[in-house]
Design goal:
By secondary structure, the chain is of the alpha/beta class. It is built from 11 helices and 10 strands.
């Protein structure tokens, strides 16, 4: 396993297991147990995913010592603000059945994120959260948070895949010693991701799948990845990406797939911000 080191000294496995869109308790618990048995030691959830209880129960049932598992969860937009954030953190700790969180992220860059961050800083300083970060923040929003608060974010989890490579964001985060983390590493199958000829051809060279090539490409860019699956074979396959290395030629070929546009929506789109606002009030 390869690890990333945060600007506060905490380390995290670069490959984790995501549980987005697995709200059913039994399916989520089974998937997390399978992932832990396969060797994953980094689990990414969120209050909005409605599966923190299943994740926590799987961790407990696995028998793996708590300190060996890195757990991330996130603050949803309806809980932004100082007081609501404190309650949300306590709720997540209770649902997960954990004494502390390894990483806590602001899930969306809207509403009173500064109030939320101040509450998160208090839990960080009390040792109940080991590291603080953000998700879906563009560089200007990251900078705004940095210059107006005490604790610097350690990570930014953003849409990143071969069709939206986020080179400028990656450089900004690198310049400020903030880790780049991907969500939707397979672009949720859009743009015929799994049928892409460039990725298929590269995979054939190494005896690897399109998914494994995409994960390896991000790992070699020092981008944290959290692939999700409920299928045992794929969970195991996604973890098997440390026995090969893409050549410079392969990396350059994949670079040509970048469209520089989101396949989902822009967090700067006024209509999207207006839509998100209905979740706040």
């Amino acid at each position: 396993m390869k690890y990333v080191k945060f600007n506060n000294g905490v380390t995290m496995p670069i490959l984790g297991f995501g549980v987005y869109q697995i709200p059913e308790y039994d399916a989520c618990k089974k998937s997390v147990l399978t992932a832990l048995e396969a060797g994953y030691r980094h689990i990414d959830t969120a209050s909005a995913y409605r599966n923190e209880e299943a994740v926590g129960d799987a961790i407990k049932e696995s028998g793996i010592p708590r300190e060996q598992i890195f757990v991330t969860t996130k603050l949803w937009i309806t809980d932004n603000g100082y007081e609501k954030t404190k309650k949300a953190i306590e709720t997540s700790l209770k649902k997960l059945g954990l004494a502390y969180l390894d990483l806590y992220l602001i899930h969306q860059p809207y509403g009173d994120v500064h109030g939320s961050w101040r509450a998160m800083e208090e839990y960080y300083e009390a040792g109940l959260i080991r590291a603080l970060g953000v998700s879906n923040f563009h560089p200007d929003r990251v900078m705004d948070l940095m210059v107006n608060n005490k604790v610097k974010p350690v990570i930014n989890q953003i849409e990143t895949h071969v069709f939206y490579q986020r080179e400028e964001d990656h450089q900004f985060l690198s310049d400020y010693d903030i880790v780049h983390e991907s969500w939707a590493p397979y672009a949720e199958g859009r743009n015929d991701f799994f049928g892409n000829e460039i990725l298929k051809n590269i995979g054939e060279k190494y005896g690897k799948s399109v998914a494994q090539v995409a994960l390896r490409w991000m790992i070699q860019r020092d981008v944290v990845v959290i692939p999700k699956s409920v299928t045992k074979a794929r969970i195991i396959e996604n973890f098997d990406v440390f026995d090969f290395e893409l050549s410079a030629e392969d990396m350059e070929a994949i670079k040509q797939l970048d469209t520089k546009e989101s396949l989902f929506f822009s967090h700067r789109d006024p209509k999207i911000i207006e839509w998100f606002s209905t979740m706040i009030n």
